[in-house]
Amino acid sequence: VQLVESGGGLVQPGGSLRLSCAASGFTFSSYYMSWVRQAPGKGLEWVSEINSGGGSTYYADSVKGRFTASRDNAKNTLYLQMNSLETGGTALYFCGSFQGFWGQGTQVTVSS
Q: Sorting pLDDT into bands at 50, 70 and 90, what band is 58?
């Protein structure tokens, strides 16, 4: 199993980023997939989940209305569109499944 996140970077408050997560080594289309994040000095925070077909999405209250999860099962790729980013969004973002596999993360820094 391999999950590789990309798309992180430095963005100003109010800006947008789109994270990607390329999956391989398992039947991606069969799994619910999630995004979690870890801010500096804090524990893991669940951000979003998307069902296997992509038709249902779930979000933490802290990101609801600003973040959108999606997936392309033909490309074995998961996405997280993040709009109206806040400084509290600074964190290492991980994609994975609560079945027990996660990527190495991509850093998002929200700062002016």
A: very high
